[in-house]
Design goal:
This protein is α/β, with parallel strands linked by helices. It contains seven helices and seven strands, in the order βααβαβαβαβαββα. α1 crosses α7 and α6 packs across α7. The relative contact order is 0.16. The chain binds 5-O-phosphono-beta-D-ribofuranosylamine.
């Protein structure tokens, strides 16, 4: 069985969409894959309760007590690997995980680490993507699923969704339309990746 570990920091709506797709499309028998655990760096992340309600194992590695990124990432890796009998989950899925990861962590999960970013990469890496797209006068925005490399919001693109920017849009209204598309493309991109493995 390919074990998937999802990392969150907040609401976890993308995580919930992945869990739902895994159930709906029967990943266990069709892809020999399952969401083994949801891990958060924030104990108060609402997504943890959502995962628990779905009967999924959860874990917390609070980043605050750690003196540096290296030591946090090491502890995070140990927590992730615990959810696979061989200590090697097939996929680590970043779903609104709001921590910059060290090159050592990225290296540890090379080829097994995916992220979703709320812009049409390579445009608008980093934060406040929707406001920046509106301010730049873009006619379209969107979201990108990509393999993670050591460079922030970089790495081979696996899927994208395009959303028109309306003249009436605020960052909030645009974000809510983009996230709806994220819920569609993220589970599909993960299923594709598992199928190709
Ligand atoms: C999403 O917009 C995702 O693209 C970004 O953070 C947000 C997470 O939302 N990385 P949620 O926690 O999945 O609801």
């Amino acid at each position: 069985m390919k074990n998937i570990v999802i990392l969150i920091s907040g609401t976890g709506s993308n995580m919930a969409a992945i869990v739902q797709a895994a159930r709906r499309d029967n990943w266990e028998s069709r892809l020999r894959a399952r969401v083994a655990a949801v891990v958060s760096n924030r104990p108060e992340a609402p997504g943890l309760a959502v995962a628990q309600q779905q009967g999924i194992a959860t874990g917390v590695v609070d980043h605050r007590p750690f003196p540096d990124r290296q030591q946090f990432d090491l502890a995070l890796g140990q927590e992730i690997d615990r959810h696979d009998p061989a200590g090697q989950p097939a996929l680590v899925v970043l779903a609104g995980f709001m921590r910059v990861l060290t090159p050592a962590f990225v290296d540890r999960y090379q080829g097994r680490l995916v992220n979703i970013h709320p812009s049409l990469l390579p445009a608008f890496t980093g934060l406040h993507t929707h406001q920046r797209a509106i301010d730049a006068g873009c006619r379209v925005a969107g979201a990108t699923v990509h393999l993670v490399t050591a460079e922030l919001d970089n790495g081979p693109i696996l899927a994208q969704a395009v959303v028109p920017i309306l003249t009436t849009d605020t960052a909030h209204s645009l974000a809510s339309r983009v996230v709806t598309q994220e819920h569609r493309i993220y589970p599909a991109a993960i299923a594709d990746l598992l199928r190709r493995r």
